[in-house]
């Protein structure tokens, strides 16, 4: 499928600010599942954009605005074609959980087995994971059970959390948004030694156009496979992948610092249409 995507982030400050330094992760990646045909990033106030690839091969644009300004606008436009994703059959049993450590030798994935800023690997998290898999001994079937558990255990509630909410708080409240569903599933997978990473991107549906978050798990011999605990499904061509990392902290669409008032408002608008 071919998509046209426009993503706009606007900040308005209560008083002039200066020395603004920012990183932007909005350019989708090119891989077997999607082809970026065009991408344009615009910033206002106008400034020079620079680009690099981070530790996880995400495309990062960065810029600075030293002069005083009362607003910041970051807008990206892209055209992208998505292709069918690699999948395992839902009833497949490819890798015993006891052999999942083979992934450590086959792929660079050590950091996707550890705690991270928003992901907890406490004994309580491990207990939840063990109860959710109910003695299942296949790694893929465990991942599917964990996805189903997170989907059923949490209630999706818009604006019930923030981008700074830790998975411990999500489990206490048992509600959150897609980012929180992803963080909880990451913690459950990692306690079972299943390598799992966070994915940021877009989801185009009949009802909404929005940013979205899901995860990927590593199955030795098959590679990274996407799972969406928010919707209890395997992502398809309606998903557009932007960036990956240990959790949201590694893939924030716009992140930075500035000097001046902390009183500000932010608005985000995403428009996705079939091209």
Characteristics of this structure?
C8orf32 fold; alpha+beta; four-stranded antiparallel sheet; 275 residues; globular; 13 strands; Immunoglobulin-like
CATH class of the largest domain: Alpha Beta
**Strand coverage percent:** 35-45%
In the CATH scheme, what's the topology name of the largest domain?
C8orf32 fold
Structural class: alpha+beta
Tally of separate domains: 2
Mean pLDDT across residues: 94
Termini separation: 8 Å
Task: List the uncertain runs.
Answer: none
**Radius of gyration, taken over Cα atoms and rounded to an integer in Å:** 19 Å
Task: Name the helix and strand elements from N-terminus to C-terminus, one letter apiece.
Answer: EEEEEHHHEHEHEEEEEE
CATH architecture of the largest domain: Roll
* Tally of helical segments: 5
Largest sheet report: 7 strands, antiparallel
Approximately how much helix is present in the residues? 10-25%
Number of strands: 13
Query: Can you tell me the overall shape?
Result: globular
Explain how this protein is built.
- The protein is α+β, with helices and mostly antiparallel strands and 275 residues long.
- The chain has two domains: 2-83 and 252-274, Immunoglobulin-like (Sandwich), CATH 2.60.40; 97-250, Roll (C8orf32 fold).
- The chain is 19% helix and 41% strand.
- The protein has five helices and 13 strands.
- It has helices spanning 102-106, 123-133, 139-153, 167-173, 178-191, and strands spanning 2-24, 34-44, 50-53, 59-65, 69-82, 155-156, 175-176, 196-204, 209-219, 223-227, 239-245, 254-259, 264-274.
- Strands 1, 2, 3, 4, 5, 12 and 13 form a seven-stranded antiparallel beta sheet that branches. It has a four-stranded antiparallel beta sheet with strand order 10-9-8-11, covered by helices on one side.
- β9 (209-219) and β10 (223-227) form a beta hairpin.
- α2 packs across α5 (178-191) and α3 runs antiparallel to α5.
- The termini are close together.
